[in-house]
Amino acid sequence: MPTSHRRRLILSHGGWRRFSLFRLVQAQRMRRLLLLFSLGVWLAHGHPSAQAKALLAAAPAGSPPPEVINRIAFPPGTQIVILQTFSLLLGGVLFVFVLSWWRSTRPDRPGEASLAKECRELKHLKIGYPEGMTYLETLRSQAFLEQRLKPLGLAIEWHSFPSASTLLSALSNGEIDFCGGGGTASLFSQAAQHLFVRVAKEKHPDVSGQAILVPEDSPIQTLHDLKGARVAFDEGSSAHYVLIRALEKAGLAYGDIEPIYLPQSEALDIFSRTQLDAWVIWMPYASTATRSAYPGRSIANLDTILGDRAEIDVPTLYYAIPELVRDYPRILKALLEEVNEAGLWANKMKLDTTRQLAERFPIAPEILETLSQRSLERAIVPIDEPTLTALQAQATTLRELQLIPERINVRDGTYSLQTRQNWTY
Fold first, then answer.
1. What is the average per-residue pLDDT within 40-67?
2. Which is higher by pLDDT, 109 or 91?
3. pLDDT digits over 355-387, tens only?
4. Cα–Cα distance between 315 and 181 in angstroms, integer?
5. Is 251 left (phi over 0), alpha (psi -120 to 50) or beta?
6. How far is CA 399 from the centre of its chain?
């Protein structure tokens, strides 16, 4: 578990647990200081040594021993010095107590009071996620967001969707408030004038799950062999754009294939019965037994199609409704902070798993080095200029192929939030 998360669990997002721990520590400190003060007062009135105690014991019973008292008296001025010292100590104790009380009444983080107010006003936050989106699935399974915002009065609801295009449609219709998915879907949604805002992106999206499959016994061996083929993909998804780039790489036009628009859940059954010539899949972002069991063989993937530009040209973005951005900025900030924490946690788990595998199987050192570096970096970052440039190039291509009804500007502030915020603790 990341250090930042352990710190958050120790301190807790609930102000009451943190406040109780603070008061307990302060009470212990006060007891120690009062004990020292009492000891000082006792010393100020004369603390007899062992020799003095013996002299007092030898004095006649019932008679005052002034000569003994004189012999055990402190040097002149000692009592005044001790009283002055402990007066200063008492003043310091009172100052520390007042300062500590004042600090305990302050918000735990900057804006925490505003966050609590927004949580009470919003009451419910609805989050959508596509299957396989690792960071959001981790955020949901680990309940990081609930631990932080539920004590402030905000209930979290989770809804699963088959693709980013359906997520953005639900976002525009008010069915959810926040979601994540591929960047291509946002271009189709913006052209359809859906309401949403791009608010963040994954720094290093996992692009290893996308591929173009053909049946095992298909004569198709290369991308060029797709000419005239019936190719299935989810319309408006990242798979849609990947296919366009694959055809371009092979010197084919979009009109050289017969597009079959099918969601993955429907395409799987038809492809399994060999009623399709090819299928562009986006098993998104994480490997699971179900997605790894897809039939067929791969003739291309993102590495062979896009190369080093795969992360830039096929980004993973996070979206919010305009109201969340405008009216509840503290909640949005907290939400993105927790997504970042979930990403760090997921990256650390991936690194640990790979290290365990490396003990039994040969794994290239550069793979471990990359995973180690990513486990230390921020998982999500603001929308940056390279991302917007890549999305604008996509939009231009889609418009030229008449796949979207009009030209769009992805830099429009209505649809893309550009900020310098750092979503870390």
1. 49
2. 91
3. 888 788 888 788 788 888 877 788 899 999 999
4. 9
5. left
6. 34
Largest alpha-carbon pair distance within the chain?
Answer: 124
Q: In which residue are the tokens 């010095």 written? A: 81
What average pLDDT does the chain have? 80
**342: its two tokens:** 């979930």
For residue 344, the one-letter residue type is L
**Rounded Cα–Cα distance for residues 14 and 151 (Å):** 6
pLDDT at res. 224: 96
Contacts of 196 (CB under 8 A, 6+ apart): 168, 171, 172, 186, 189, 190, 319, 320, 321, 322, 415
What residues pair up with 300 in beta bridges, in sequence order? 212
> Which residue has better confidence, 247 or 369?
247
Q: What is the CA radius of gyration of the chain?
A: 34
**DSSP secondary structure, 133-192, as one string:** -HHHHHHHHHTHHHHHHGGGT-EEEEEEESSHHHHHHHHHTTS-SEEEEESHHHHHHHHT
Which H or E element spans position 355? helix 329-358
Encoded tokens for 388: 């917007």
Query: What letter represents residue 333's amino acid?
Result: K
**Per-residue DSSP letter, 14:** -
Q: What pLDDT shows up at residue 96?
A: 57
> Token digits for 124?
């419910």
Amino acid, res. 92: G
44 phi, psi to nearest 5 deg: -60, -25
Q: Taking CA 228 as the corner, what is the angle to CA 246 and CA 221, rounded to the nearest 5 degrees?
A: 60
pTM: 0.71
d(C-alpha 371, C-alpha 351), whole Å = 6
Q: How many CA atoms lie within 13 A of 370 on its CB side?
A: 8
Distance of alpha carbon 125 from alpha carbon 330, whole angstroms? 13
**12, 150 contact by CB (below 8 A):** no
| Residue type, position 167, single letter | L
Per-residue pLDDT tens digits for 276-321: 999 998 754 344 555 566 788 999 999 999 999 999 999 999 999 9
